[in-house]
Design a protein that fits this description.
Blueprint (H helix, E strand, L loop, with lengths): L8 H10 L6 H18 L18 H11 L1
Length: 72
């Protein structure tokens, strides 16, 4: 995929800030999914500008499991 190396830096920053509060894979899953919803569906607004822009919640399960395995 042709995108800048820092394409997801804002999302990574938000996820890293929230990880210390996560005690389970489900909490990491919520954090990751909600971060992408915030960034891709709301952007810098307080109203939803792109419903569904972040994809399905289940699409983030594998990523959450991988992150949780790294921080255990």
């Amino acid at each position: 995929m042709d995108c800048p190396d820092d394409e997801y830096d804002p999302e990574v920053k938000l996820i890293l800030e929230g990880l210390p509060r996560c005690q389970s894979t489900n909490e990491v899953h919520d954090l990751v999914y909600n971060t992408f919803v915030k960034m891709f569906e709301y952007g810098s607004t307080r109203r939803r500008v792109d419903p569904g822009g972040a994809g399905k919640r289940e699409d983030y399960r594998e990523m959450a499991e991988q992150v949780r395995a790294l921080i255990k």
